[in-house]
Amino acid sequence: xxxxxxxxxxxxxxxxxxxxxxxxxxxxxxxxxxxxxxxxxxxxxxxxxxxxxxxxxxxxxxxxxxxxxxxxxxxxxxxxxxxxxxxxxxxxxxxxxxxxxxxxxxxxxxxxxxxxxxxxxxxxxxxxxxxxxxxxxxxxxxxxxxxxxxxxxxxxxxxxxxxxxxxxxxxxxxxxxxxxxxxxxxxxxx
Length: 190
What we know:
Blueprint: H1 7-21, H2 37-47, E1 59-64, H3 67-88, H4 91-97, H5 108-111, E2 115-121, E3 123-127, E4 133-137, H6 141-158, H7 172-178, E5 184-189
Antiparallel strand pairs: 1-2, 2-5, 3-4
């Protein structure tokens, strides 16, 4: 139910949200302390409430806590990024990253209690009465998933959790490691 707020209430809520979001930071070192799983569930549910093209909700959120899976997820991008840092990246690019202290080492992928891998459903799949898959078009998937990720990050931040967006390149290994269907493409690792 929609409730119209007074201008004073609108401004107060807007200012409070802005102040909270301005404290959000990306971090690359994580505590291994346990995190209540409900915080992750609530953040994913918040993200799933995002608007999407034709209300198709073309996303899948995969939460990984298993240490073996987290290790596998770490190894592939480290190998690829080591090659990038050592041979592919220009000095200008390395200089731009220098203040952030990044390199090819990605221990945060194992240290963080949870990884949330967001997949974009590039097309929909449904099964007919004979169990045969049928593809159907999704609309504005990239934009829709981007909005959902924004809500996910805001929800995690408001719950007091630190995050980092990680987009290893290439990301196809994530579909293999996590056994995802053919219509999903990895979008980001949180």
